């Protein structure tokens, strides 16, 4: 029994060792191939990126080289056109100097064509004569209607503006009158404030001559009233000055 159990245990141990060896062998067979595939993919990606960068650099250098070759050509063409323009202007000026009558005629013709008034006069006396009387009447009637519409709009706008001006003038007149009346009343108030302040000063001088605590207390009250009157007088003077600056006599 014991020998048979040991034999079985040895057999099982041997089987486990065989299984362990088989799995290690499979892992070693799989792992190198996986690493080589990853390395190969990484190398291929790197080579592709390097080739793309070289291609982009080559294309960019070709583009800039083409541009540098094209700029002098453009510059030379512009110089050629500029020289041709200057030459034509010089030729025209010399021709005008040699033929002043022709130059004056061309200038007059250009004036008739370009300026609005002479152009209308020229059209009226040339192509306008070719129009029928009915067509001329229809055109004139359209112009009259357009002018009438413009005049009506201007009349309405002018009436509105005149009404606004009259209202503003009335408001200004009434406001001017009200401001003048207020200024007169403020002037009268200022005179009353001056008189009260003078009375307060005289009363303070009189109280200084009376001894005693009651007189001292009254003098303090009168001094406080005199200070208030002085502040009131300053405010009234500022208001009178502001009304005078507006052009209203008070």
From TrEMBL:
Q: Which domain of life is it from?
A: Eukaryota
Supply the name of the protein.
Answer: RGS1-HXK1-interacting protein 1-like
Check the record and name the InterPro entries matching this protein.
RGS1-HXK1_interactor
What is the originating organism of this protein? Heracleum sosnowskyi
């Amino acid at each position: 029994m014991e020998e048979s159990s040991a034999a079985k245990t040895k057999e099982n141990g041997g089987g486990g060792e065989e299984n362990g060896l088989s799995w290690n062998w499979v892992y070693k067979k799989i792992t190198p191939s996986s690493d080589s595939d990853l390395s190969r993919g990484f190398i291929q990606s790197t080579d592709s990126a390097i080739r793309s960068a070289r291609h982009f650099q080559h294309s960019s250098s070709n583009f800039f080289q083409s541009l540098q070759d094209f700029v002098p050509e453009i510059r030379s063409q512009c110089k050629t056109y500029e020289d041709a323009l200057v030459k034509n202007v010089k030729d025209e000026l010399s021709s005008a100097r040699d033929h002043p009558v022709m130059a004056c005629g061309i200038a007059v013709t250009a004036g008739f064509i370009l300026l609005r008034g002479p152009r209308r006069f020229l059209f009226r006396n040339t192509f306008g004569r070719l129009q029928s009387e009915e067509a001329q009447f229809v055109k004139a009637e359209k112009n009259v209607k357009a002018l009438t519409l413009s005049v009506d709009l201007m009349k309405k706008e002018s009436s509105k503006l005149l009404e606004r001006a009259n209202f503003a003038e009335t408001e200004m007149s009434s406001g001017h009158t009200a401001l003048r009346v207020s200024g007169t009343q403020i002037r009268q108030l200022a005179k009353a404030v001056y008189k009260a302040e003078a009375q307060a000063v005289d009363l303070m001088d009189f109280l200084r001559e009376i001894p005693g605590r009651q007189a001292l207390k009254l003098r303090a009250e009168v001094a406080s009233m005199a200070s208030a009157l002085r502040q009131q007088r300053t405010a009234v003077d500022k208001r009178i000055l502001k009304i005078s600056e507006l052009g209203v006599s008070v």
